[in-house]
Structures are given as C-alpha cells and as structure tokens.
Design a protein that fits this description.
It is a single chain. The chain is an alpha+beta fold. Helices cover 33% and strands 20% of the residues.
C-alpha cells in the first residue's frame, strides 16, 4: 500500500480541518506584541500517559507538525475588553489540567509520564490592525493555521499558541494552534464554548469529565488493562484475516496524498434516513453506517468493509467533554455477504458495538502487533477508509460546521484540497433536518464525477431502503456506483485482492533484479495444467496446495534464503503500490528455465532451497 496513506489509528477524530486561506485573505501583518500571562492556584500532579496521549505523542515525534498540530478560531464578541479575553484564557488554563501539562523526556526517547503544573505563564501574541480584510474569519483562520508550523516542545512548551487579533485595540478573534498531545478537535470545541460563556459572564459548572491523569489511572487499572488486551486481540483478528487495503485496484497506485473536500447537504437524504430507520427499527446512525459500508464494499468489490470509526471514544460520559486527546480508533470489519440491506443493518448493530468495545488500547503494543502480524502475513495494513459520524455530539461542540442552509438540493459543493492520510474520509455533521456529510476521496481512485456519484448514490440507497428492503446484488442499479475494474490476472487470496504480476515485479526489485516467476496455486482455473507423468486425479487433488502464491527465484551465484527474500519483499510492500501480498512459499533455483513464463518449466528445475520465509509455516 502507498506510503502516502497513514496506517495510524489516531488522528481523524478531530473536526475536519478548516479551509486554507486564499490569496485575497492575506493582509500585511502588523507588528506583533507579546503579553506574558501568569496563572497560579492549580494543583500540581504527575502520572502516566493516557493511551490516547501516547498514541498522539508517537505521531508528534514522527510526523510533519503542520499535519499533526491542530488549530481553531474563537470569535470574540464585539466590545469585549482585552483584559476579559486574557482572564478567560487564564480561567480555562486553571480549570483544565491538560493545558498545564508537559511531558518530560530526554532527546531520542518518548515521554512516559505527564506533569501538571500548579502555576506558570503563557504568552499571547497581539496583532493589532487598523481593519481586518474583507473576510475576517478566513483571515483569522490563516493566522491560526500558520501557527501550526513548528513542533511543540512537549517537555516545556505551553500547549496553545495564541494570537489575539484586534482592531484598534479591541479583540476580534483568538486564533490558536494546539499540541495534539493535550487536545483534539472535540476538546478544542469544549474550550471554545466555555471561552465564549466566560466572555458572556456565565458561571461555568464544575467539570464533569475525567482529567487526563484520572483517565490514565482507569486505563492502567486491572480492568483497564484487561480491556486493552482484549482490544489488541480483536484488532489482530482483523489485521490477520481481513483485507489489507480496501482499494486494491490498478488505479490505487497513483495517490499523491491530497484530496478536495466534497460536501453534501440534502433534506431528501435526511428524510430517507429517518424513514429507513423507522422501517427497519434501527437507529439512524446504524442505518447510515450500514449504507456507507455497503457502498464502500460494493465500490471496492470486497466481501467486507474495514473502516475506522474514530468518534466512538467520545460518547462515554466520563470523556465526552474531557479536555484531552482521545484519538483512538474503533475498527469495524463488517462482512457484507448477506442477501439484502435489511440483513446488513441487523448485522451492523452488533458489529459496531463490538468495535466500540475494543477501541481502547496501548498504541505501542498495537503497533508491535501490527508489525508482527503483517510481517508474517507479508502485507501492509493501511487505514484506507474512515467514517466519522459526529452528528450525535452536542451542536455546541461542532461550532459552525453544522449551520443549516436552505439552498436547493441535493446540494453538492466542492472545497479546497488538503492532505489526506487515508483513501476515503467522511464526516457526518448532521442527519436532521438535513443530511450533511463532507467527503474526501483520493483523486487517484475517484474522478470528481465519481466522488459526486458516490455521495449521491448514498442518498439513493437510503431512499430505496426507506421504501423497502434492497437486494445487495442490486446496488449498481440502485445507486449508480460501479464496482472497481481489475485486470484478468487479479484474484482474491487470503481475504485480499492480489495482482500476481505486481507481486512478481516487486519481489524482483526486492532481490536486486534476479529472475522471478510467481505461480498461483490452489485456485481453480488459474494454475496451469501440470504434466501428469502417470499420476492419478486423486493423487493430484491430494497434492493441491492451499490457495496462494509460490515464488520461484533464480539465484545464480547470489547468496539468498527464503527468509531473506521475504524480509526484502515486506520492506518494499508499503510503497509498492496496490495488490501486493507476499507469496506463501519461496523456491530458490539456480538458473531460469528456457520458457520462463510457464510454471511447469520452473517446477521441473532442481531446487536449491525452499520455505515460507517466515518464522512459522503459513
């Protein structure tokens, strides 16, 4: 799978990144003035990291900070004094331990604990303007986004970079960049809401959610550790047997890591979803997720839809409004081999609950497991599909993303391109009174017309499901979405779509250009008819290997073992393109046959060594 896609089960819990600035939004920057703000009166604490913090810190230490840091813009009500803004920021800092937290560690190591300060300082950069540009909110957005550049110093830096945009000395916007180690999109939304409440003179209730240190204590309790271990076992079953890439197809090799935002707003879709929910007796969220999975699996030609469902970790009361990072995935693997959509909806409810129960895990152990399992399997697990339904979160936490519009429908509108760490990403902001979904689809896989057709097809599927049960083999006719086209050499092996030609070419590069032949074994109608040499049909059947690939490598005088060949191949698979899965066996011979395209010619050669190349038989 392509390296441009992240396999990281982490970062899409956040609200969708806002639109980047346009050229006309920029104005000459005024000279900045820095205010140092002191706070005191908190409680000093220290403790282990939460699993979400450890997960995100791993990304912070590795990834481009402009991709991993997050940002937000808080409008300041007209007439607010600068002192009121400073006081509100100070109050939030004392109210939430996460804002007073640092992560001590020595260079070259990752933090293992968090330290909460009782007192300290933070800075606010004041940018005073004679006037803001024609689109002030978009300009404020550009200031916040620019502050994402530069890695946060986890061991010492205050986790918010705050710019106060003023006009003639009066605040208009607070533009913030935030360390993803202390907050995610939902946490920033909580801070925004309470910031505005403070400016309005409201008294905030006591925080009801767990602090990060208290949450870490729960996770490290015997019950929490058992839950984490169960989550790893659940993930291992999917990583070890499910499709390793949902979009395994020839077009999948051309991704550049960027995609444009496509937004659907449809009252038709909302009405259809409500009626389908009523007719099937299932919650709207379940029906919508079933429709998403059905359409993704249909488009990709897969028997199962593997999709990350990140917002599961924000629905428990103890963390719903917690100011911390809760960025861990629920991983859903939904088998779509059912006769009808109603049967799929019935199956989805239990599958989703199972995925949610297994969304708390030790990220270090998770990645150790993924590395071990994919090395054995000879694959690369990618986080291809993400479905983030935030429609059930309180509207106050979603900011302006859910603002209703009365435009004619169905409305499809395009936004700017931005980095896409996956192949297909959807955010559902509303299901009523309109169905409001934003989609980012890899342009290597979806033309603009195909992306629009996918979202329109989702609405058509909901409308059909509202009227009655829908046969799963009728999805093309119902939705207009067609299944991916693959060449005749593609086949399904070990739950994955595989291109033997791509495997051959990748293995050839891995072993330095040595001649390679890849044979498909154990698949009816694919393996060449062998020379019988008097063998009976029963003997042939008994000797038939399990479905898979056998790779023949002509080594000549080059020293090579099956294990070395497998390691070299698995090192290339993450960047090899689509449809590459390691062979089950490696057979080393001296020289290639005279007819190198025939498997029976390779089988007749004298074998130097053969084996799986793995630490265990497969």
């Amino acid at each position: 799978m392509n390296s441009a896609r992240s396999a990281n089960p982490a970062a899409d819990e956040d609200a969708v990144p806002p639109n980047p600035p346009r050229d006309e939004d920029t104005v000459p920057s005024p000279l900045p003035r820095t205010l140092t703000v002191s706070y005191a009166g908190g409680e000093a604490r220290r403790g282990p990291l939460t699993m979400g913090q450890a997960n995100m810190i791993r990304c912070i230490l590795r990834d481009d900070p402009t991709h991993i840091n997050i940002h937000d813009v808080w409008p300041v009500p007209e007439g607010t004094a600068p002192e009121a803004v400073i006081d509100a920021l100070r109050t939030l800092t004392l109210r939430y331990e996460g804002l007073r937290t640092t992560f001590p560690h020595t260079p070259g190591t990752a933090p293992v604990e968090q330290v909460v300060a009782a007192e300290g300082t933070f800075t606010v950069t004041v940018l005073d303007h004679d006037e803001l540009p024609g689109e002030p909110a978009r300009y404020a957005e550009s200031v916040a986004r620019a502050a994402r550049a530069g890695r946060f110093a986890l061991e010492r830096e205050f986790p918010l970079r705050i710019s106060l945009l003023t006009v003639g000395g009066l605040p208009a916007y607070a533009a913030l960049a935030c360390s993803h180690a202390v907050a995610d999109g939902s946490a920033m939304a909580v801070l925004r809401e309470e910031f505005l409440d403070l400016l309005a003179g409201k008294e905030l209730p006591e925080p009801a959610a767990s602090s990060p240190i208290d949450l870490a204590a729960e996770e490290n309790s015997p019950a929490g550790l058992r839950k984490s271990a169960a989550s790893l076992r659940y993930w291992e079953r999917i990583i070890g047997s499910g499709p390793q890439e949902m979009f395994a197809e020839p077009r999948g090799a051309g991704a550049d890591g960027r995609a444009r935002q496509l937004t659907l707003r449809s009252r038709r879709g909302a009405r259809a979803l409500a009626e389908a929910s009523r007719r099937t007796g299932n919650p709207e969220a379940t029906v919508l997720l079933a429709a998403w999975c059905a359409l993704v699996a249909h488009r990709t030609g897969q028997d199962a839809c593997v999709t990350a469902v990140p917002t599961s970790n924000r629905f428990h009361p103890r963390i719903a409004r917690s100011v911390t990072t809760a960025a861990q995935d629920a991983l859903l693997c939904l088998d779509v081999r059912v006769p009808s959509f109603d049967a799929l909806v019935a199956r989805t409810w239990g599958a989703v609950l199972n995925a949610y129960r297994h969304s708390q895990f030790d990220s270090v152990r998770l990645w150790e497991m993924i590395g071990r399992v994919t090395a054995e399997r000879g694959s690369h697990f990618g986080r291809d599909v993400v479905f983030n339904d935030v429609s059930a979160l309180p509207a106050a936490l979603l900011g302006t993303a859910t603002e209703a519009r009365d435009d004619a429908e169905p409305e499809l509108s395009w936004g700017p391109a931005q980095a896409l760490p996956t192949r297909l990403l959807a955010f559902t902001y509303q299901t009523a009174p309109q169905l409001h979904i934003s989609l980012w689809a890899d342009p290597a896989l979806f033309t603009p017309e195909e992306a629009e057709g996918f979202l329109s097809g989702l609405v058509l599927l909901l409308e059909a499901a509202a009227a009655g049960d829908v046969p799963m083999d009728a999805l093309t006719g119902v939705t207009g979405v067609r299944t991916a086209e693959r060449g005749p050499d593609w086949l399904r092996l070990d739950g994955c779509w595989v291109s033997p030609a791509a495997v051959r070419d990748t293995l050839g590069r891995a072993v330095g250009g040595l001649p390679v032949h890849v044979e498909v074994t154990g698949v009816t109608g694919v393996t060449e008819e062998p020379e019988r040499d008097g063998a009976t049909e029963a003997e042939d059947t008994a000797a038939t290997p399990p479905p898979g690939l056998t790779a023949y490598i002509a080594c000549g005088d080059t020293p090579l073992t099956p294990a070395e060949a497998h390691r070299a191949l698995t090192a290339l698979i993450p960047t090899a393109g689509s449809g590459v899965l390691a062979p089950r066996r490696y057979v080393l011979v001296t020289d290639p046959p005279a007819d190198p395209d025939r498997s029976d010619a390779w089988r007749r050669l004298k074998t130097i060594e053969e084996g799986t190349g793995r630490s265990r038989q497969v």
